[in-house]
Design brief:
The complex is a heterodimer of chains A (173) and B (576).
Chain A lengths: L1 E9 L4 H11 L3 E9 L5 E9 L3 H13 L3 E6 L5 E12 L5 H8 L5 E5 L3 E8 L1 H11 L4 E6 L3 E4 L6 H4 L7
Antiparallel strand pairs in A: 1-3, 1-4, 2-3, 5-7, 5-8, 5-9, 6-7
Chain B lengths: L1 H11 L6 H11 L4 E4 L6 H9 L5 E4 L3 H15 L3 E5 L3 H4 L2 H9 L4 E7 L15 H5 L5 E4 L6 H13 L5 E7 H5 L24 H13 L3 E5 L1 H5 L3 H11 L3 E3 L14 E4 L6 H9 L2 E5 L5 H4 L10 E6 L13 E4 L2 H10 L8 H13 L13 H11 L5 E4 L3 H9 L8 E2 L10 H11 L5 E6 H7 L3 H6 L5 E6 L4 H10 L15 H7 L3 E5 L2 H13 L4 E6 L26
Parallel strand pairs in B: 1-2, 1-3, 3-4, 4-6, 5-6, 7-8, 7-10, 8-9, 10-11, 11-12, 13-14, 13-15, 15-16, 16-18, 17-18
Classes of the chains: A alpha+beta (173), B alpha/beta (576).
Bound molecules: thiamine diphosphate (TPP) and magnesium ion (MG).
The site of thiamine diphosphate has 20 residues of chain B, from α18, α20 and α22.
């Protein structure tokens, strides 16, 4: 199962190394990782997407992460009400006569063209990872030259429904 | 580089206070009395400060960094205080890697200071530069590289705090040379610990304690598994009180030996791969397993499928990550061992009705005791351990190396008291035993300290003979000399079709002459009579002694749970 885990960490040298090293050593697959500063100086937030077989392993990884001295908080937010976003840049092979066709495809995704050259154009899209996947599939027939994705970042929504309202609500399976 | 050279020059004239002087002050403030060290370029400023401290802090010069860090581990095991290690950058630091890993696996508090090249050249592959931070990240509880002299007081304070609280472990502090050589402009402010992410839980949850007490009352076949956590928590007395109050039988792990008196009727001895029949069958048949401070290591549990299959499992551990890691746990209790035991003792719940269980276990003990047979072709190593036990009254501090002799020592050197047993459990580090004994003797000068070592492992760190001579540390070294890497030989004989591949030591030094060349008394003994005659006198000798004891090569450690087998599938439980 895929889980979204957020870490609040002290912004000290080596902390990213400790976290990724630990995951590697305990054989957890990191699908994506994103890191950045938070509203508090000296505190950073990491968002990990990891592939984990079962609850027991999930509990183990959470505990191991929590044990790190510079890790302040570990939360598995997968089953909470959350806002999830990722940004992707997609370079598509395209001559000028295809440009408006591509525009028509990306428009419903609220993506935009941010760079144009003779042979290619670059699309920028933000959204949930599935939405990005979907656009990539639609653009593939045109010839994708390069993709750069930031990895997912997420946090809790302001309103958290009661547990029974949540039921099967989940953003990534 | 230039700046650094200038600073060094400056220091040799009558010196203003440097980062290194500050470090020595900070160590004294932490109550450090002994440094386990080895000098080199990157720590020259620190050694200059040690010189200037004029003996107000004791420094022991070892002959190899691995030896000195194992000695620091032995010291930590006996005192409960962090062992303090100083090594130079590059090769000095990398020579420590085995010992740091060993301390991490066995939860021993160490504070390790390594020199580093000056900040201006870090990352340039400078002479004797190694990426010690990256190398030690997975093998330390935490590590620091000092980036400014003003951080030094806080970092040293935090390092000692982290190493010695919660689940103890090694902390490394990497000090660039320009920091230790740097001149202190003003006396830094008193440091405060700033560790919002580190708050170990030490008090148990009362609801879980109640749940455990109720489960004890209802159990028919309860058993306690006592690990090193009981020793780290200094909770042996509380463990004994709890076990006796409810008549609960106790199995100890390899590292937990001594946590519960071996001569108590409730003691089942050691569990695991070479544990007793009664201990292992108790772990198999139990309906309530109370683990206190053990981590369900695979050498204890055997194949997890067959481990305590009928049991409700309670686990008391100060490290939450250990609970449920290997064995599903119904009653998790994150706590210091002593705090939890004290709470358990005051619970009013009934004692279990487990007379029948105790009777069964008693029968197992009678029916399947540890055994060995005397053979005509050489001294029996098990008997040798019993002889050492006898001559030391079972009261010595015993360290071991790794291999067959370690298991025989664990089986036959039984303890009445805690904190007398020092062995490398988790990492199984050959070369550990002898230097660990040096650390133990430094920590406890009045105690008899015996290093029970193999002929293989002793040769990995024997250069420290210089240290026991130089300091007149009366360590007694018993080489259980079977002319082989015995444990490897045993596995090859039993599990690899008797193909004895590269595990016989065809040539060996003359250990007696070797000892003598270091100025130490040595003796070779190859039969029982001589051992009985000379051992008392050798142990009475007021100085270090090395005894090269020749024992049967073919002897094997039994009982044994073969790898992959369940805890109830022991072989060699009875003489064949
Ligand atoms: C540093 C290291 N290398 C290799 C091993 C693997 N090993 C485990 S026991 C053993 C044999 C030890 O021989 P010896 O010290 O003579 O002890 P014995 O088993 O004969 O009592 C070996 C090689 C180890 N544990 N540690
Ligand atoms: Mg041997």
């Amino acid at each position: 199962m895929k889980r979204i885990i957020t870490l609040t960490v002290q912004d000290r040298s080596g902390v990213l190394n400790r976290v990724t090293g630990l995951l590697q050593r305990r054989q957890f697959n990191i699908e994506s990782i994103s890191v950045g500063p938070t509203e508090t100086e000296g505190i950073s937030k990491m968002t990990l997407v990891v592939e984990i077989e079962d609850e027991q392993r999930l509990e183990q990884v959470t505990k191991q992460l929590n044990k790190q001295i510079d890790v302040l908080k570990v939360s598995d937010i997968t089953d909470k009400a959350i806002v999830v976003r990722e940004l992707a840049l997609i370079k598509v092979a395209s001559s000028s006569h295809l440009r408006s066709e591509i525009n028509g495809i990306i428009d419903p995704f609220r993506a935009s063209i941010i760079d144009v050259s003779k042979e290619s154009l670059a699309v920028q899209i933000t959204g949930r990872p599935e939405k990005i996947d979907a656009l990539i599939e639609l653009l593939r027939p045109y010839g994708i030259k390069e993709i750069a994705r930031t990895g997912l970042t997420a946090f809790l929504r302001g309103y958290q429904p009661q547990v029974n309202e949540l039921a099967t609500y989940s953003l990534i399976k | 580089m230039k700046v650094e050279a200038k600073q060094l020059e400056f220091q040799t004239s009558i010196a203003p206070k440097t980062g290194a002087d500050l470090l020595i002050d900070l160590l004294k403030n932490e109550g450090v009395d002994t440094l386990f060290g080895y000098p080199g370029g990157a720590v020259l400023p620190i050694y200059d400060a040690i010189y200037r401290a004029q003996g107000t802090i004791k420094h022991i010069l070892f002959r190899h960094e691995q030896g000195m860090i194992h000695a620091a581990e032995g010291y930590a095991r006996i005192t409960g205080k962090p062992g303090v290690v100083i090594a130079t950058s590059g090769p000095g630091a990398t020579n420590l890697v085995t010992g740091i890993t060993d301390a991490m696996m066995d939860s021993l508090p160490l504070v390790v200071f390594t020199g580093q090249v000056a900040r201006s050249v870090i990352g340039t592959d400078a002479f004797q530069e190694a990426d010690v931070m990256a190398i030690t990240t997975p093998i330390t509880k935490h590590n620091y590289q000092v980036q400014s002299i003003s951080d030094l007081p806080r970092i040293v304070k935090e390092a000692f705090h982290i190493a010695s609280t919660g689940r103890p472990g090694p902390v490394l502090v990497d000090i660039p040379k320009d920091i230790s050589a740097g001149v202190l402009v003003e006396e830094p402010e008193k440091a405060c610990i700033d560790l919002p992410g580190y708050q170990p839980t030490t008090k148990p949850n009362p609801l879980q304690i109640k749940k455990l007490a109720d489960s004890v009352a209802k159990a028919k076949k309860p058993v306690i598994l006592a690990g090193a956590g009981v020793l780290h928590g200094k909770a042996s007395r509380e463990l004994t009180a709890f076990a006796e109050k409810h008549q609960l039988p106790v199995v100890t792990t390899l590292l937990g030996l001594g946590a519960f008196p071996a001569d108590s009727p409730l003691s089942l001895g050691m569990g695991g791969m070479h544990g007793t029949y009664a201990a292992n069958i108790a772990l198999y048949e139990t309906d309530l397993l109370i683990n206190i401070g053990a981590r369900f290591d695979d050498r204890l549990t055997g194949n997890l499928k067959h481990f305590a299959p009928h049991a409700k499992v309670a686990h008391i551990d100060i490290d939450p990550a250990e609970i449920g890691k290997n064995v599903p746990t119904q009653i998790p209790i994150v706590s210091d061992a002593k705090e939890a035991l004290v709470e358990l003792i005051v619970q009013t719940a009934e004692s279990p009705e487990n007379k029948a269980w105790l009777e069964t276990l008693h029968q197992y003990k009678q029916e399947y005791p540890l055994w060995y047979k005397h053979e005509p072709d050489g001294m029996c190593p098990q008997w040798l351990i019993e002889a050492v036990h006898k001559v030391t009254n079972g009261e010595a501090i015993v360290t071991t190396d790794v291999g067959q002799h370690q298991m025989w020592a664990a089986q036959y050197y039984t303890f009445k008291e805690p904190h007398r047993w020092i062995t490398s459990g988790g990492l199984g580090t050959m070369g550990f035993g002898f230097p660990a004994a040096i650390g133990a003797q430094i920590a406890s000068p009045e105690s008899t300290v015996v290093a029970i070592v193999g002929d293989g492992g002793f040769q990995m760190t024997l250069q420290e003979l210089s240290v026991i001579y130089e300091r007149n540390l009366p360590v007694k070294i018993i080489i259980v000399n079977n002319g082989a890497l015995g444990m490897v030989r045993q596995w090859q004989e039993l599990l690899h079709g008797n193909r004895i591949s590269e595990s016989i030591l065809h040539t060996q030094p003359d250990f007696v002459k070797l000892a003598e060349s270091y100025g130490i008394r040595g003796m070779k003994i190859d039969n029982q009579e001589d051992l009985i005659t000379f051992l008392p006198e050798l142990f009475a000798h007021d100085g270090p002694v090395l005894v090269d004891c020749r024992v049967r090569q073919q002897e094997k450690v039994f009982p044994m749970i073969a790898p992959g087998k369940g805890i109830h599938e022991m072989i060699g439980v009875k003489p064949s």
